[in-house]
Each structure stands twice: as C-alpha cells, then as structure tokens.
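Write out the bound-state structure for F0G.
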Amino acid sequence: MLQTANSTSAPQTDLAFQRCINPTCGATYEANSVRTSCDKCGDLLDIDYEWDRAVLPKKLSEFEAMWNQRTNPVRFSGVWRFHELLPFVPQDKIVTVGEGQTLLQQTDSVGDYVGMNHGKLHLQYEGMNPSGSFKDNGMCAAVTHAAMMGAKRAACASTGNTSASLALYCSATRLMRAVIFIGSGKISYGKLSQALDYGALTVQIAGDFDDAMIRVKQVSQELGIYLVNSVNPFRLEGQKTIMFRILEALRWEVPDWIVVPGGNLGNSSAFGKAFSELKALGLIDRMPRLAVINASGADTLYELVERRGVRWNGGHVNMDPIREYNDLMDREGKKADTIASAIEINRPVNLKKCLRALDTMDGVVRQVSDQEILDAKAKVGAGGFGCEPASAASVAGAKLLRREGVIAPSDRVVCILTGHELKDPTATVAYHTTDQEVFNKTLGSRGVTKASHANRAIAVPNELDDIIKAIQLYS
Ligand code: F0G
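---
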C-alpha cells in the first residue's frame, strides 16, 4: 500500500540529514544513505533538519486542519499528518497502512489506583495500531526510508512487537521481505503468531534478545539488508508523533509527566527529541518531565542512571561505569528475566539517546517488580483498556513515583500503553487463573506471589439450577 498523496501543501523535504549524536564528532551524512551508526566514531545517529528553511505551522493547533484531509491517506495517518515535523521524505514516497489512530484516555479508576486526583491520569493507548503496538509509528517511517533506498529485504531483532510490525508492513505493502531474528522461547505467542501469519522469514536464535541484536547487525551488514531496529534513526522520527498526538488530545497543552516503559530505549529517546524540537521551534513553551520504567528483572538503565550516576553530560557520557556494568553482567552471567518479555533486555541500544532525553526532560528512572507490573496490568484491564505486561510498567511506575512524592496528585500524567492486551494472553490468564499450578509455573518463578486484582472464573456443574445460583451469588 504505497500511498500517493494528493495534497497541494506538501512540506519541503530536502531539509533532512543525519548527524552523529556525539558533539565532539558531529559528523553529518545525507538522509539518502543507509546507516545505523556514525562511520567516524561509531556513535548513534539522529535525523536533523535545516529547520530555518522549513515551512512550519506557527501554532501546533494548525495541524487540526489536517483532519479535514482524511481522504488523503497520508493525512489520515496519525504519523504522517505531522509530516511537517518529520520532513525527510516527499509525500508521494510515504508508506502508510493507516497507523497512529490511537486514543488518549482519561481514566479515574486507574487514576485512583495510582493515587492521582480525578481527571489527572491519562493512558495513551498505542495497542490500537494495526499490528497492536506503538512500533507501527516508527516502522512506517523506517519502511518509507527503506523503500526510498530501494531495499528488497528488511531485518530486525525483536522481543516480538518490532518483528510483528515489520512483518505487517512488508506483507501489506509487498515492498520488501521481512527477515526477523528472535530469541529462543522469549517471545509471546501473540507476537510470534503475527510474524508467522504475515509471512516473515523468522530466524530463531539459540540465545536471548541481546544475542539476536548482535547477530542481526552482523547479518544485515554482511548481506546488505536494511535494518529497522531502533538504532535506525528514521524509526525514531515516526515515534515522535506519539507525543504530537498526546498534545493534540490535550488541546495542545503540555502534560507534567510522560511515563514510558524502557526496553531498548527507542521510545524514550524519540520522545525527548520530539519535545526538544518543539521547544526549539517555539511550538511549545515548556517541557514535560520524563519517567522511564524498567522491569526489575531487566534494570540496566535504572542501575546505570540511578545507582551509578551515569548522565548525558552534554554528550560527554562517562563510558567507564557502563563498561564496568556490562563486564559485571558477563562475569555473573546475568540475563534479563521478566514477565514483561517485551522489555527483557540487558543492553539497550539507545542508551545514550535516552540519557539525552532524561537530561532535556528532567527525567527519572525507576524499576518495578513483576508483581507490581501484573497488578497494574489487571487494574488497566479492569478500567476497560487492556495492555500487555511491559506496557503496565508505566502505570506501576507512576504509582511508585506518586508514593515517593515525585509525582504530585495534581500533576497531569500520561502513561504510554505500548502494546495490546492480546499480545500476551498467557500472562493475563496465569494471573487470573484458579489453577495454582499454572500460576506457579508462569508467574511464581518470577517472584509473583499473589493476584490481588484477579477476576477468577467460577466453575459450575453443567446444571441450570447451579448456573443460576452461581450467577445470583456472584453478581
Ligand atoms: N513496550 C512494548 C510493548 C515493547 O514491545 C517494547 C519494545 C517496549 C515497551 C520498550 O520500548 O525499546 O523503545 O524502550 N519492544 C522491542 C521489540 C524491543 O523488539 O519489539 P523501547
């Protein structure tokens, strides 16, 4: 579905270039080239723009005019209707499957659980994307760039959602073949089933996500396959739009907090870039604060930032504590382990960009246990908007920050629900089950001891009287 736009107001697109994030290097490369790191120093790359030549709206509310252009597939997309803020591609080259039709829900039932005043907690429900997770925001941008570059194959390593998204874009557009790398037994069935169903070439590595990530980089380089993991800076351009849609839903008012689960740290990095750019362009007057939430079984960011004091430091990141911690993990054979399989990652590839986002958004990092994640997930589900375990880390993290007094009850808080409830039914059913064996096998081994918010099925004999009695008793 390569969509051709018919708008007359297409933004200028020769403004984009790639730039090394390391300020002492700062090498630049043209946008029409394929890179996932700086040739000179090996650091991550940003997409940057010559904004002074860009034709931009004077106010963010001008984007509302795009709603009238919904018959144009580009403006229908919740990503590309903000094309002016990611102008690296001409409109007629944009790839879209209608991603980004997502909702910001205000919820007092979850707000009560977190400890917020009424009207203050919002959930950004990214599970409504075509492949069921926020990844589609970034994947449409990466696949657009891949198509511009004439790629015939695109690859990623994944804990499941990136691969589902890539597989969907490849099968829906027929532009290129998806090659996905997954760790053994580390991916939920909901996500694996998508990759298989959408026809991706699925390579199961005898290892975990971090192993798959190393391999996919090597293989992509060797075979000239286009890499779409979030080391790809174009991915993050698409993910910026999650923040634009939140502002749009809040009538262009900046919230106090954005709370997001942290895995490979692409989202948090993209959010920081989105707000930095809006501020620099004079389109917002203040920054929200950022909270990145790790699962305690995959807490590298928390360890480095909150325990070892690693900071962005104007781009001069002290790499010693990072190297020391990586060595320690190797020596002790420490492997990430959490029910939130989407964020079961030891070595987040966007670490430095996330440090930058924490710096610009006055951010904090917290870790939450699998128990806290599943309890929060049950509350989100009971509030009517289910999510997968990793997503609920944001709500559990907000609750923790409320308890600590870092978030005030009167703050306006947005938690990002990154993936759909049905991505991982195994974890959900294990939480609500009456079968102790199922509970112990799936959750007990991860330190989850109780399911305080479980909604248990009731077992009744197949007799009308018994069924009626049970319903009268429990309803
Ligand atoms: N939530 C969900 C549902 C995810 O799938 C991921 C990442 C994250 C949160 C973390 O986001 O990496 O930007 O910090 N999933 C990747 C994948 C790693 O392969 O699908 P991040």
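---
The longest strand covers residues 177-183.
Residues 1-8 have pLDDT under 50 and may be disordered.
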